[in-house]
Amino acid sequence: MKQSGYRTTFHIYLIFFLSLLGTLIAVCCLFAMLITATNPNGKNVRSDQPKIFTQDFSKYIVFVNDTPKIKQTGLELLQETHVGLQILDAAGNEIYAFQKPNTAQDYYSNTDLLQLYQTGHFDNASPEDMTAFIGVITGNEKDYAYVLYFPMNIQKVTMYLNGERFAGGKKVIIFIIGILLVIVLFLGLGYGLLVTKAISRLSASIRDISGRCYLPAKEKGAFRDLIKSLNELDGEVRASDRLREKTENLRREWISNITHDLKTPLSPIKGYAEILCDDTEKTIPQCKRYAEIMLKNAAYMENLIDDLKLTWQLENDMLPINRQEQNIVRFLRELSIDILNRPKYEERTIAFQCSENITDETAIFSFDKKLFTRTFQNLIINAFVHGGKDTEVTVQISVSDCWLNINLSDNGIGMSAEETDQLFDRYYRGTNTESKSEGTGLGLAIAKSIIELHGGTISVTSSPGAGTAFLIRFPVCQN
Questions:
Q1: Helix (H) or strand (E) holding 48
Q2: What is the dotted CATH code of the domain comprising 224-314?
Q3: Which CATH architecture best describes the domain 46-158?
Q4: In angstroms, rounded to a whole number, what is the distance separating the alpha carbons of residues 219 and 226?
Q5: Res 190: pLDDT
Q6: The pTM is what?
Q7: What does the domain layout of the chain look like in residue ranges?
Q8: Mind listing the pLDDT tens digit for each residue in 232-271?
Q9: What's the CATH class of domain 321-475?
């Protein structure tokens, strides 16, 4: 979003910068036209060149017998430049002339000389392509004025400008400014239409995304990063929709299964209770056997309810945790022994291995013993329940690179890639409820949540016929 804002701002400033640059170039060109003039030889010279020429021409005037004369080099220079010359005495009478224009007077009063000095023209009837410049020279303690007539129209202002071009200068400036304003107007209008059109497309795209009918657009133009974000948003929305649909399907399936699981233990409890009520002639061994069945199913229902409660607490971050620093190696070893001491698993095997870098089989870690018992007991028993009779479990503990690694592996029947992908889903049950009623479909999801609650991670690798391995990792280094 920021890139599009920066790019739009850049484009706007670029328009004004180009407009300003064009104005500056136009002003520079106009200024160059005003301070230059074309001499009779066709060359462009500075507009103040006649003034400089007049000031320097005094070196070509010499006095012979108290009479001013022009050096031969001066005459050649006047011929080359087509400049006329008049030399006037103190009274304003002409005493020498060379190539003077026909409109030049033989006598000039002080007023005429002042006007000629200020304006460069004789009078209103003077030709526009002729400009006069006056210089003063002193010889034999007498002052003389010399007038040079240049075949160029030079306006005497603060600067010496090209008169022909200066006359229309204001119109040129106004014309150029008008053209620039029109260009800026049309450029701004065009860019505004493009931005409006692009924003309309973006708005339509947002509506399409909300309506789930958006088609990914090509990422190009000034708003390409916004288009990219919209494409990514559409992908995330579709992925979220798929995940929600999948979650809802799993939730419906889980509710169906959990309903079945709740009814399953109730049926024998109700049936045997009715038998005990209806038939009073049952022997004590029969009553004892019926009671054991009822207690077993009641315990299963109790475990199921506990799993539901624990799941709800984990989902809402309401599970109390009592972490204490304990020896995780000793804890897992004792937990394995407790499982093998149960009559149901007394013939099973749990191999326990500890890496060499764990001294005296001691690895201190802060954890909640009750929750860890639930987690690792579930993982180990789950391997026995879903594996064959010869399934063996191996527990490996190691510490490396500030991580406590616990690897639980078995040599059971393994799982497919599809099963491992959904193994930790809260509403997924890998085993059909009808074939095995022990599971609630929440055990591994609860185990994963407890491990993550302790700052750890759990991952699984498995393949059919090659067993299953769980890798649990906890950070043990202090930052």
A1: none
A2: 1.10.287.130
A3: 2-Layer Sandwich (3.30)
A4: 8
A5: 77
A6: 0.46
A7: 46-158, 224-314, 321-475
A8: 888 888 888 888 888 787 777 766 766 676 777 777 777 7
A9: alpha beta
